[in-house]
Specification:
5 helices, two-stranded antiparallel ribbon
């Protein structure tokens, strides 16, 4: 049997406890709706928060990896562009040497071909010298290899340099010819240089494809990590919205229950009223 007392209102105490619990739940739901997260800090769920934070850090660090790989792509692209120019110039040099090997030419025509050959040769040097991206080249012989970032642990993706200079293609820096016979020999030399250049460009193309593939993978990996973090900490807003309405109704009922409980003490006064 309940105790009728003006000192202790048990019903009001229980109603207040329930109302406080409902208000606390309501505050949590409102915070989730405001932030869009069910785990916003370590207080919400320490283990999940730590896991999500580590994965988020890894995902963010992959931005540096993507930057490095894109820099590698650009470096190779510049070298490939130079290589295309070099092979085109070598083809023209071969034409000049072939034309100069004709013994029926007069001296003026022969000398003009020699001049053209020399000019084309020098253009190769200029093209290779300027084949730099961000001050770095894998075509001029200044380095043997470059290493770009491959993952968040700092593991490298190595690209082997391919020297496209005259010496790197088997041509002397001052390659030329002074006679028709020497021009005929030069045909073979330049043909070999073209073969060397195309092989080196093919290798660079393979490296470029490798960078492209790995860059695509890193992008997908980053997306997967970010999606995983979202699964760990993001709130289901549809679910939280429904819960919000439920708690708001529960809060209103709690306030009403507390009001009823507080009125119980006034009923005790009726016991002392005269008939």
């Amino acid at each position: 049997m309940a105790l009728n007392s003006i000192n202790t209102n048990t019903g009001a105490m229980i109603a207040l406890q329930n109302l406080n619990a409902t208000s606390a739940e309501l505050m949590t739901v409102q915070q989730r709706i405001n932030t869009g997260k069910k785990v916003g800090n370590a207080k919400d769920n320490g283990a999940i928060w730590a896991m999500a934070k580590n994965q988020s850090t890894t995902a963010n660090s992959l931005n540096a990896v993507k930057d490095s790989l894109q820099r590698g792509q650009s470096t190779i692209d510049v070298a490939l562009a130079a290589g295309d120019t070099v092979t085109e110039l070598l083809g023209k040099m071969k034409e000049k040497a072939l034309a100069a090997s004709d013994t029926s030419l007069n001296t003026a025509s022969f000398n003009a071909l020699v001049s053209d050959f020399t000019s084309l040769r020098d253009q190769i040097t200029k093209a290779v010298t300027n084949a730099k991206f961000n001050g770095v080249s894998i075509a001029d012989g200044s380095t043997t290899k470059l290493t770009f970032l491959a993952n968040s642990d700092g593991t490298g993706f190595t690209v082997t340099a391919k020297t496209l200079s005259l010496v790197g293609l088997g041509l002397a820096a001052g390659s030329t010819f002074a006679t028709a016979a020497a021009a005929k020999t030069m045909i073979t030399t330049v043909t070999n240089a073209i073969g060397t250049a195309t092989n080196k460009l093919a290798s660079l193309g393979t490296s470029s494809t490798g960078l492209d593939t790995h860059l695509t993978f890193v992008g997908k990996l980053q997306d997967s990590l970010e999606a995983g973090v979202g699964n760990l900490v993001d709130a289901d807003l549809a679910k939280e919205s429904a819960r919000l309405q439920s708690l708001q109704t529960k809060q209103q009922l709690g306030i009403q229950a507390l009001s009823i409980a507080n009125q119980s003490s006034s009923s005790i006064l009726s016991l002392f009223r005269s008939a």
